[in-house]
Amino acid sequence: MINDLFGAITHAQDEIVKALRAELFELMLQKRLALNRDQWLGEIGIQRSDARAQAARENEINIPTICFHEATTANGLCRMCVVEVDGMRLLQPACIVQAAANMKVRTRSERVDRARRTVLEMLASTMDLSESEEIQSMIREYGADVERFPDAVRREVALKDDNPMYVRDYSKCLLCWRCVQVCADDAQYTYAINFNGRGFETQIGTFFDRTIPETTCVLCGQCVGVCPTGALKPKREYLLQQGVSPAEISVMNTGRRKRKNV
Question: Domain 166-254 carries which CATH code?
Answer without folding.
Answer: 3.30.70.20
